[in-house]
Amino acid sequence: QVQLVESGGGLVQAGGSLRLSCAASGRTFSSYAMGWFRQAPGKEREFVSTIDRTGVSAQYADSVKGRFTISRDKAKNTVYLQMNSLKPEDTAVYYCAARVVPYGSRRPDEYPYWGQGTQVTVSS
């Protein structure tokens, strides 16, 4: 089992940047493909990005492609989400999630491990 703790959320103006972190503990971090999801008020949780356990391959939702970058640091057992050119529609609670391989799932119900979430608010 793995425990996940997100940090780095906050309030930022449109066009600004934030970097979210997700620290993992428990079983070997490199065993897991990692994902970022978000949920805005009144909406379903949606896929943002995922990275494979080696950090080589990543996927992004069309809405964030070219603005967000996912990465992972094996030594720190941490996955990051660098968010640039933020828009008001990016406002949501952002969640980190983990699943044992295979990598590539965009479905929240295929990730058994979740963090508590971190709020990102983008003002116009």
Provide an overview of this structure.
The chain is mostly beta strands and 124 residues long. Helices cover 0% and strands 52% of the residues. Strands 2, 4, 5, 6, 9, 10 and 11 form a 7-stranded mixed β-sheet that branches. Strands 1-3-8-7 form a 4-stranded antiparallel β-sheet, with no helix packed on it. A hairpin with a 6-residue loop joins strand 4 (32-39) and strand 5. The radius of gyration is 13 Å and the shape is globular.
Instruction: Describe the main β-sheet briefly.
Output: 7 strands, mixed
Which percent range describes the beta-strand content? over 45%
Mean pLDDT, to the nearest integer, reads 95
| Helical residues, percent | under 10%
Intertermini distance: 40 Å
Radius of gyration: 13 Å
The backbone outline, from C-alpha atoms, is globular
Per DSSP E runs of 2 or more residues, the count of β-strands stands at: 11
Q: Name the structural class.
A: mainly beta
Order of helices and strands: EEEEEEEEEEE
Total helical segments: 0
Oligomer: single chain
Which stretches are poorly predicted, pLDDT < 50 over at least 5 residues? none
